[in-house]
UniProtKB/TrEMBL annotation:
Recorded family membership: Belongs to the class-V pyridoxal-phosphate-dependent aminotransferase family. NifS/IscS subfamily.
The protein's required cofactors: pyridoxal 5'-phosphate
InterPro entries noted in UniProt: Aminotrans_V_dom (IPR000192), Cysteine_dSase (IPR016454), PyrdxlP-dep_Trfase (IPR015424), PyrdxlP-dep_Trfase_major (IPR015421), PyrdxlP-dep_Trfase_small (IPR015422)
Keywords in alphabetical order: Iron, Iron-sulfur, Metal-binding, Pyridoxal phosphate, Transferase
Domain of life: Bacteria
Gene source species: Nonomuraea polychroma
A GO molecular-function annotation: iron-sulfur cluster binding
Name used for this protein in its record: Cysteine desulfurase
Domain Aminotransferase class V positions: 20-381
Record's catalysed reaction(s): (sulfur carrier)-H + L-cysteine = (sulfur carrier)-SH + L-alanine
Amino acid sequence: MTARPSLHTIPHPGLAGGPVYLDYNATTPVDPRVAEAMLPHLTDLFGNPSSSHPYSEQPRAALEQARGQVAALIGARPREVLFTASGSEADLLALRGAVLADDRPRPHVITQATEHPAVLQTCHALQRLHGARVTVLPVDGDGLVEPAALAAALDEDTVLVSVMAANNETGALQPISDLAALAHQHGALLHCDAAQAVGKIGVDVEALGVDLLTVVGHKMYAPKGVGALYIRDGVELEPVVYGGGQERGLRAGTENVALAVALGTAAELAARDLASGEPARLAALRDGLHQRLAHGLPGRVHLNGSAERRLPNTLNVSIDGVLGHDLLTVAPEIAASTGSACHSGTHTPSPVLTAMGLDADHALAAVRLSLGRWSTPTDIDTAATTLIKASIP
Ligand SMILES: Cc1ncc(COP(=O)(O)O)c(C=O)c1O
């Protein structure tokens, strides 16, 4: 396997001595460089960025620098980036904000079946609380939305179309620029939850043609509890938190400068990773793992989702004859996710895989292996050996 060494070759302290971490799509370790950058804002630089005395100067400048760093990563203008407390909150601001700012009596929202619950549940809430009409588009066997299906669903009441850039379970990459063009032809906005895409692949709001785009810190080596929403200049939204005029009056609350700095630093590090071939390094490791599994378990390993239209770090496979949950239980050497959700001890198939047409047996056999900045060839070797051994009766 030819893999370039990781940019950040020093092992992460949080991974030392633990199982091989293959769950970067669930969350990423905080990059020590990110932690270092935010630290002064938890200690000495305590000032309120809105104050008018010297204590505010560095926090205010740091906040604006962070905004610029996030904007640069996604091809936006700094004033188009608004910090939030999570990806879920950014999704809420985008969807609820767009629907409530529109004065059509029966607003229509279009989304698709494999969205994150932050989008799907917000759509349900808009239906329940605000009389919105919601259309959920199906996906094909690769988990992709057919643009023709969107074209057929758009009508004169459609306020917003919300489709994710990359799926968290399969890595499937949606045809966002085609969908955005269609939405715009019908006068609708396009929101894109890019939680899983930003930092892993190039994301450019102009090239995609999106109006709103969600960024999530803990998927890109910043801490949990920080996100951002890109809001194209001129797009009107109802605020998500009312109060002081922070964040252009759309999200009141004294800004969390430390977390904004963390996200800004993470964005700058991500831009460096993208420029230096990290996606290709991860794709080579990921494909090596897939090949090892397919070779070690002949005829039993089935890729879920498209091999091509996919994030470079994500491998979702169903292995015949095993249950993903049981497999990971007998393979404590690795930390990964399954294609099922556990409710009170009962495993139900993942709605994402079910929407792609997988039957319950294949969905329950799925494991999601997602790689990241500290993944090494040795990790892949351990994971392949362990999973093969655990899958042989
Ligand atoms: C696609 C997607 N959207 C939104 C979120 C929610 O982000 P947060 O955990 O910051 O609310 C996640 C995280 O799991 C995600 O994978």
